[in-house]
Amino acid sequence: MERELLEKNLREMRAxxxxxxxxxxxxxxxxxxxxxxxxxxxxxxxxxxxxxxENRVQELAAKADSLNPGFARHMIGRLQLNKVKQVLPLxxxxxxxxxxxxxxxIDRRAQALxxxxxxxxxxxxxxxxxxxxxLEEDLESFVCEAxxxxxxxxxxxxxxxxxxxxxxxxxxxxxxxxAWFDRLREQAIPxxxxxxxxxxxxxxxxxxxxxGATMVRPGRALFGARI
Length: 227
What we know:
Blueprint: H1 3-20, E1 28-32, H2 38-46, E2 51-54, H3 57-63, E3 72-75, H4 84-87, E4 93-97, H5 100-113, E5 117-123, H6 136-147, E6 152-159, H7 171-187, E7 192-201, H8 205-210, E8 215-217, H9 220-223
Parallel strand pairs: 1-2, 1-8, 2-3, 3-4, 4-5, 5-6, 6-7, 7-8
């Protein structure tokens, strides 16, 4: 990808996000790098991107040694239990903590390494049967349990919205996510910092920013269509 095009995409995305999130504060970009070449990813770092998100452990492992060491590397895809041991040394955060079995495995493996793993709790806010995530009625108890584990450090919430043609259709879900984020932060649950609300991708990240996301996850809007 040409530097000029990526720079233009980032500049336009940053301007739109800053305008959309004026009432909340600056939104962090987690650039989704699935299928993106390492050279392009490192170019994004040179242009100011500090956080990247990968969907697959195998792809991240293949890229890891060639990525700029300054990146914060986040796992954003659904994580299989048998991949936890492999992924922990590769990432600085797991955004997709979506079930108790995964919580227990991350906790066990991270304790063995002696370093707690920062996590976001993934919420299935739209109750989609095909999507992973904690349901709203279980969210508070799940966050409390996760926060009590020595091997994890709860830093917020994450959500993946329904795929729709008009992002306005998912605005109510973004709004509900922000309400949960604020509610859990106000409860000051020991071990849960509630610093990050990660929601919104290329098609709907501007609406997410308007409704209080602290982090968005654009990919296509920055790097173009996936190969």
